[in-house]
């Protein structure tokens, strides 16, 4: 009985170790893929943007990372489809930022929900 239990515990522990080892290799592969994607994005942006435009985009990424990511995606998509004539200057990037801002602009509305005020004509049942 003790040998069977010991074997079961060993098999269970071995399965746990293998699962941990498999997960760590998957995490490592995921990190490598993210790093390659980041390097690819940076190289495309370096080819598409001039120095001042890259500086402005990196400043934007510090303040509003979501908006910077949207602009980067937009620029990469334009570069892939060959819609860019040359390097984008800072003024060109500002125009693109305005377009993206208009597309993602959140419109806030204020809605007043007025409570019904008791009329003086109504009788109170106290």
UniProtKB/TrEMBL annotation:
One of its GO terms (molecular function) is DNA binding. Residues 7-23 have a biased composition (Basic and acidic residues). GO terms for biological process: apoptotic process. Keywords: Acetylation, Apoptosis, Phosphoprotein. Pfam families: dsDNA_bind. Residues 1-39 are annotated as: Disordered. GO terms for cellular component: cytosol; nucleus. It comes from the Eukaryota. Belongs to the PDCD5 family. May function in the process of apoptosis. This is Programmed cell death protein 5. It comes from Austrofundulus limnaeus. The gene is pdcd5.
